[in-house]
């Protein structure tokens, strides 16, 4: 499935002009269909388009065919055990299985996950650019009603402070600003830049993944020495990653993304661990279209420990080929009350 973006999406890791995702349809012998979606985000997950298709065709399909939807636990354990890694392919099938489970018992998935609320409010991402371009994008986002902005930084650390000054001036004092460095800085560089930003009165809510994902000690250093709270993103793929970060005190918050965890099954374990330890979570997404972001909406609406929302993928797209599912009205997202995930169909899919 190909969906053009309104404007190019730029981070410290990549530039993207359109969403090019794999759609998965899982059918039951009773005529039901569940949908999933997997973005090829090689720079983060290592999953490419061909790798996702290969994992589905060569491993996952063979494991899933013939299983019972009622055996949710057994089916998802089999999915997670059939191939190492390949979290995006697993996530696509995982959300389709939950979709079918909800349909089977005629309940929307967010109620299966806890039913904490049926509406959430997302931020919107401002791509990394020259300061004047980012200021213009900020003004446009505020005019569209967004109260929280997620600012991409990290391509040129020397410019990052200037970028944030321009954004804060354009946004005004009442707009919440969070930043995402996408692993771009060294620990000492991160502390220097973040503290300089706060000293300039930029009033940042949090910084997402300031250092390399594998550098937990470095992230802990930033957490302990920065004026800005730290959120772990690329450092958290599995429940074990989350436990380690929580126990080390390596971050203040965790960003849960279905494409990193391999789907809702493992995301639920991360949310449970965070709740036990009282660590707030964000529900985030890669650059994804509505099918997979819709699954993330259901998950976020189910769990009160998820306090922050970064699910702007569909509003960054120039069109929506998906019928049904959550309603995205700029910053406001309302989950569907239809059974399962609520997806009715997808236009423009080139079925393999």
Characterize the structure shown:
With 352 residues, the chain is of the alpha/beta class. It folds into 2 domains: 2-106, Enolase-like, domain 1 (2-Layer Sandwich), CATH 3.30.390.10; 111-346, TIM Barrel. Helices cover 41% and strands 22% of the residues. The strands form 5 sheets. An 8-stranded parallel beta sheet has the order 6-7-8-9-10-11-12-13. It has a 3-stranded antiparallel beta sheet with strand order 5-16-15, covered by helices on one side. The longest helix has 18 residues, at 87-104. It starts with a strand and ends in a 6-residue tail after the last strand. The model has no long low-confidence stretch (mean pLDDT 95).
A few lines on this structure:
By secondary structure, the protein is of the alpha/beta class. It contains 13 helices and 17 strands.
Based on Cα principal axes, name the global outline. Answer: globular
Low-confidence stretches: none
N-to-C SSE series?
EEEEHHHHEEHEHEHEHEHEHHEHEHEEEE
SS summary, helix count: 13
CATH class of the largest domain: Alpha Beta
Question: Could you say what the CATH topology of the largest domain is called?
Answer: TIM Barrel
Give the helices and strands, then pairings.
Layout: E1 2-10, E2 15-20, E3 22-27, E4 33-38, H1 49-64, H2 72-81, H3 87-104, H4 109-112, E5 119-121, E6 124-126, H5 131-143, E7 148-152, H6 157-171, E8 176-180, H7 187-199, E9 204-208, H8 216-225, E10 230-232, H9 239-248, E11 253-256, H10 258-261, H11 264-277, E12 281-284, H12 290-302, E13 306-310, H13 313-316, E14 322-324, E15 327-329, E16 332-334, E17 343-346
Helix pairs in contact: 1-3, 2-3, 5-6, 6-7, 7-8, 9-11
């Amino acid at each position: 499935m190909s969906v053009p973006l309104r404007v190019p999406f730029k981070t410290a890791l990549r530039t993207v002009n359109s969403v090019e995702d794999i759609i998965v349809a899982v059918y039951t012998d009773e005529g039901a269909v569940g949908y999933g979606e997997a973005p090829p985000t090689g720079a983060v997950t290592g999953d490419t388009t061909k790798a996702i298709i290969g994992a589905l065709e060569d491993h996952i399909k063979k494991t899933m065919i013939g299983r019972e939807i009622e055996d949710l636990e057994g089916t998802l354990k089999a999915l997670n055990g059939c191939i190492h890694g390949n979290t995006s392919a697993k996530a696509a099938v995982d959300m389709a299985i939950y979709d079918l489970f909800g349909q089977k018992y005629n309940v929307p998935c967010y109620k299966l996950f806890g039913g904490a609320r049926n509406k959430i409010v997302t931020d919107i991402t401002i791509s990394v650019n020259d300061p004047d371009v980012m200021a213009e994008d900020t003004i446009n986002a505020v005019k569209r009603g967004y109260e929280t902005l997620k600012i991409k930084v990290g391509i040129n650390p020397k410019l990052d402070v200037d970028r944030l000054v321009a954004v804060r001036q354009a946004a005004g004092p009442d707009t919440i600003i969070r930043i995402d460095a996408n692993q771009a800085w060294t620990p000492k560089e991160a502390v220097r830049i973040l503290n300089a930003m706060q000293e300039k009165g930029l009033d940042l809510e949090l910084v997402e993944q300031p250092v390399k994902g594998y550098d937990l000690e470095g992230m802990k250093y930033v957490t302990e020495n920065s004026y800005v709270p730290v959120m772990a993103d690329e450092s958290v793929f599995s429940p074990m990653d989350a436990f380690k970060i929580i126990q080390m005190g390596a971050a203040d918050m965790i960003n849960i993304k279905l494409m990193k965890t391999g789907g809702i099954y493992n995301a639920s374990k991360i949310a449970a661990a965070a709740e036990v330890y009282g660590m707030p979570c964000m529900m985030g997404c890669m650059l994804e279209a509505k099918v997979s972001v819709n699954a993330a909406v259901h998950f976020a609406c189910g769990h009160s420990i998820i306090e922050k929302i970064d699910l702007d993928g569909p509003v960054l797209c120039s069109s929506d080929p998906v019928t049904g599912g959550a309603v995205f009205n700029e910053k406001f997202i309302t989950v569907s009350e239809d059974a399962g995930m609520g997806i009715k169909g997808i236009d423009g899919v080139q079925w393999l």
